[in-house]
Amino acid sequence: MRMEMRGEVIIGLCLCMLLFFCPVPQAADYTYGDYYNKQLTTTSTGNTRGPSINGKGDKIAFSSDQDLLGNGSAYPQLFLWSSTSGLTQITSDVCYMWGWTNGYTPLPSINFAGDRIAYRSFTNFWFCETDIKLWKSEVGSATTIVSTGCTWPGIDPLKISGNGKKVYFRSNEDFKGVGNNYNALYLWDEDTSAITKIDTTQSLAALPDIYLSGNYDGTLAAYSTICTTGSYAGKNPDANWETYLWNKSDNSISQITSTSGGGSNGGCREPSITSYTISTTTGTTSMTKIAFSSDRDLLTSNPDNNPEIFLWTIYGSYTSTNTGSYTQITSTSVSGGACRNPQISRDGKFVTFTSNVDIVSGGISLLTGGTSAIFVWNSNGAITKVNTNSSDNPVIASYTGLYESGDIQYGPRIAYFSTSDGSEEIYLATSTIPVPATSRWGLIILILVLVSLAVFMLIRKRRGAPEGKLRERDLYNPDHRRPC
């Protein structure tokens, strides 16, 4: 009796473990359904904006001029939200300069680990001095890494690399003999404490787009510009927005898009870049992807010139014979439709973007009320709607496109700010559908083996011992008699 009970207990325990650890297997790529949108701030007025999310998706840096934690200041300050410790105010010295509405915000950019934040600080109201500061969690404070005089329109944009050791920015300061009032892109490097000039322009009007983007280790940068002079002489005669790729290894600038017509309001802009190493039959090679928005008919599949999201992909380095290829990942056909603000995950499997068109239903109708929503494109071709509120500038968690919690993986985590309730608030959108992690299959197989073994043992016990031999229970039965 004791042996039979022991076998049943083993089977029960194994079945419980199997149910707990074994989700239903799914395909290699996943279509994410519902997203849980968590509101991280609550204000009634003012400006709370500019979220930047770390790689794992559990930390978000943003700016606010509201007294969220009793800072007592009406000036925009830098805050950090963490899934473990909640809200923390990082700064108390970001100077207010000529009004928040003119865009003078800290513009925080957080690295992959979430332990470094680069931001701009206006340290002198009257002399409009603009600095770039780098906050490190290990020291709990920020240091100035780039100091300028009066820069107009200031250091804008800026982007920290994934490893937190490099910062891209634009400025008209004369760092490298460019000449004051000539806007150019730069790269600050912590390892060398040096500033590298990326390009040369000759005009205040030639401004790189706000969506300057760099890869994880800071060796590549993607950006868009309408510039026609300096580094871009002869490359963009009609002053469209065009997208470029800068490579730190040889300080080269490669033109990724080349369009014509439409003037300065059209073209290819808002690039977001990722690069990583992949295995091939002959070894390994690099893969670089750039998501961008374009109202041009790049693949003869956008005849109505609505802004659509495109993906540029290249294997290895850019050369005259290896120029990469385009993929159009959205298609709208309604007048006034637009897909903008793309952000690509670090593994290149997901792209978030905003649109005022109901993409999920075929892209043939505008969203109600003139609002926009956030969508996620999956590399399997599926597009999922994240929210239905008016929102702006979604930023995707950039590590792998997946948020891991223990052994369970979830879909992309997306930080954004929304004005749906009349005030600007920060939100975090998380997929509610779990995805099985591939690392768990070894454990699942082991559990299946144990269950099979336990079932075999129980069946053997119930069939009894062979004839002519005493079963264990008969040793304790005084009435036992061997059959004749």
Task: Give an overview in words.
By secondary structure, the chain is mainly β. It has a domain at 1-23 and 440-464. Helices cover 9% and strands 37% of the residues. It has a four-stranded antiparallel β-sheet, with no helix packed on it. A four-stranded antiparallel β-sheet has the order 2-3-4-5, with no helix packed on it. Strands 6-7-8-9 form a four-stranded antiparallel β-sheet, with no helix packed on it. The two termini are 26 Å apart.
Short description:
The protein is mainly beta and 484 residues long.
List the helices and strands and how they pair.
Elements: H1 2-21, E1 35-39, E2 48-53, E3 59-64, E4 77-82, E5 86-89, E6 109-110, E7 116-124, E8 129-136, E9 141-150, E10 158-160, E11 166-171, E12 184-189, E13 194-197, E14 213-214, E15 220-225, E16 242-247, E17 252-255, E18 268-280, E19 283-294, E20 308-315, E21 325-328, E22 339-344, E23 350-355, E24 373-378, E25 383-385, E26 391-396, E27 403-405, E28 408-410, E29 413-418, E30 425-431, E31 435-436, H2 441-463
Antiparallel strand pairs: 1-30, 2-3, 3-4, 4-5, 6-7, 7-8, 8-9, 10-11, 11-12, 12-13, 14-15, 15-16, 16-17, 18-19, 19-20, 20-21, 22-23, 23-24, 24-25, 26-29, 27-28, 28-31, 29-30
Helix pairs in contact: 1-2
Helix content: under 10%
Trace the largest sheet across and list its strands. 1-30-29-26
- Largest sheet properties: 4 strands, antiparallel
User: What portion of residues belong to β-strands?
Assistant: 35-45%
- The chain-level structural class is mainly beta
Mean pLDDT: 76
CA radius of gyration is 29 Å
Distance between the termini: 26 Å
Low-confidence stretches: 18-32, 97-103
Shape: globular
| Strand element count | 31
How many helical stretches?
A: 2
